[in-house]
Amino acid sequence: MSTQEERAPREGAVATEPGGRTRRAPEREPSIFREPGYRWLFSAALVSKIGAQVSYIAIPLIAVTKLNATAGQVGLLGALSFAAFLLVGLPAGVWVDRMRRRPVMVAAQVSRAVLMVTVPIAWALDSSPSTSCTRWSC
Fold first, then answer.
1. pTM greater than 0.70
2. CB–CB of 83/77 below 8 Å?
3. Quick one: how far is CA 10 from the chain centroid?
4. Contact yes or no for 125/133 (Cβ under 8 A)
5. How far apart are CA 72 and CA 96, in angstroms?
6. What does the alpha-carbon distance between residue 125 and residue 127 come to, in Å, rounded to a whole number?
7. Which 3 state secondary structure label does DSSP give 14?
8. Per-residue pLDDT tens for 100-112?
9. Most buried residue, 2, 63, 72, 129, by most Cβ within 10 Å?
10. In whole angstroms, what separates CA 87 from the centre of its chain?
């Protein structure tokens, strides 16, 4: 076989078989990314995952650098976030599963974004350049 016969034909191209017959190459199915609803869902999920990963790093880092938290306090912060998932997240998931999904997902992501934005705003409003005292030490 020559190299031209071994190569797969391009999409929609006509290929000649050894018997002289011609056949069309199978057409690919359209990409799922052409659907606007899926693009919105994918983009929202991507932003949400990136935000969650940043918060997993940023919240303990802020606790250590700005609030002078100890290693035990940072560990307690992680344990309490996991406990909150177990005590609130699982029962809420059962309850929310009976509702329409899209409004619940939108409301959850918007409230999560608002709550995450309040952290730097609270820090900026609490820190004043005239004093070096923090809430826990002076």
1. no
2. no
3. 36
4. no
5. 34
6. 6
7. strand
8. 988 988 898 888 8
9. 63
10. 23
